[in-house]
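sanity check this:
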Amino acid sequence: MSLEVSVDDEIIKISNELKALESEAESLKKELLSLKQKRDEKNAQFADLIKKGKENKELRDKANEDTKKYKALREENSLKLKKIYDSLNKIKEATKNKDITSSSEIEKKIDNIEWKLETEVLSLDKEKKLVDMIKDLKKDLKESKTYEDLSKEARFSRKDLDELKKNSEEYHKKVLELSDESTKYHERMIYYFNTSEELKKEADNLHKNYLEKKKYVDEHYDKIRELRSKVKGLELTSRKSAKQEKDQKIKESKKILSKKSEDILEKFKNGEKLTSEDLKILQAGGNI
């Protein structure tokens, strides 16, 4: 009897301990799930920031490439402008302090003088003056034709000049815009990457806490399994002990019944009258 009480007391004690441990483990499990959720949220935010950082890096690199392209176009455009300005400067220099007569007028003058030389009788002095005049006019003709050629080139250059100036402004404007874009994307990239580093640290700390908490929770559940196994063993022991006690009581009861039955049977043999209760005992004891 004392063994059964002891085992039952132990079962109650361990069951109470188990209940408290299970309650604590459940609370710890909720904390663990909360940590996991926070860690996963930080990791998701980290991944999103890294993605945005990479996207802005790609946009920055694209802006830098486009900047190089438009800088090259601007440089090429500048060289073309320089060539035209050089041409215009040549014209300016060629006509500086000069009154340029058209080549057709000069040629007409030369033709008139030559005609006069060929058709009129002139003195040597007069003829020499006219020949010298033709020489000077031919020099003027050469300058005039040079000027006219340069003027044609200048007319063509001025037509291109306006377009090149317009291109130059557009290319420069584009370079400034792309430079601003590159700076904007670079600053965003730095922000996203720096912020992601902070989030990564937070996520790593949460993961560290998660692992520590998980270890603690696992220890609780190991202890819970151990106590459940112990309770199960004690319950088996208790049931076995109760059965043995029950069997012993039945055995003792049968022994007492058998003794009573034998005593009553002896009374019957001695001629004593039996009661209905005596008959029941004889029947239960197997003597009838």
